[in-house]
Amino acid sequence: MIGGTCDSAFEPVLAAFAENFSVRGETGAALCVTVYGRTFVDLWGGWTSPARRTPWAPDTLVDIFSVGKGMLALLAAHLAGTGQLESDAPVARYWPEFAAEEKHAVTLRQLLSHQAGLPAIRRRLPPDAMLDWQLMAAAIAGERPWWPPGTGHGYHVNTFGFAVGEVMRRITGKTVGTLLRERVARPLGADIHIGLPVAEHYRVADFDWPAGTLAEADPTGLDETRLMEHNAYFNPAGLSGAGVVNTARWREAEVPSANCHGSARGVARVYAALAAGGTLGGVKVVDRGALADATCEQANGPDLILHRPSRFGLGFQLTQPERPMGRGTGAFLHFGGGGSLGCCDPEAGVAIGYVTGQMGPRWQNTRNRALIDAIYACL
To answer: For a Cys-Cys bond, which of 156, 227, 301, 320 suits 160, CB 3.0-4.6 Å?
Structure first.
């Protein structure tokens, strides 16, 4: 059962959304599309758990994983625009302990664009360490880079959120979740959260994470490169959400790269503001110039973690030939686990929020691809 509204000009999008359920295995999801701030598509369907007891609702929240990195990128640009953060400054200016292991020259620009060489922690961390902010920040500060910073880029799958978030905490005295709530979500009226209050947990869909999907393997005997790749996802155990994603303690904690929770409407609302240059409905969340800097290409080419091409601005993923977004080169975005997506294309005025309740291909996801293609066919 599909609920919501869809403008007649976007009927192919409704058809693609329905086909995700009937053909492509979708079990629960929502989609919101705005054009120049006006909502043309607002759809939801399916169930909030594999047990299929509760239908998906317009205000259902779900873990959108790395879509949260786009929120971090926005917050970094926000702080840059207010003069509180300088992208070309050494990280250690704000976080002195970060200078350990010869990282004194690593800049925020390198950190934000996945060039800092810190995608993982070498020493084995105890289970649930990702729920202890101070432990994770200290581990990253004490880590030596896996490659010389600035000489290549590799997706900082989970360390990104803690490292960038700790810089923000040192600058403002506030956590990432608090900054997102106070400076973006609440002013815009966007239903998106990092660190979800217990009182809101009743709205959260359980995430269907099938056994063996992005599952941890034994790291014993791995060489340096393979250990880096393994630990980026699995040190500590549960770092990416496996085994804990549907627990109250995971939802309540702040694990910025992996446990952002949002609705499709909430994600689209944020990106509608970004599509408009940082201001929507009289609410300014980021300076236009700082946003332009954040969406300029910083890294492009073979990714040392993903082993495929990736293209980054300052935290935002950028459209690329291997996974295009729109007809031009100006779209910026961030995908998340299962295919969730927050995206905007300023040239077309389009903002997209897509959230899903199940794991799927992390690279070429047929469900979000079908939706993206249908959206652009209607423009």
So the answer is: 156
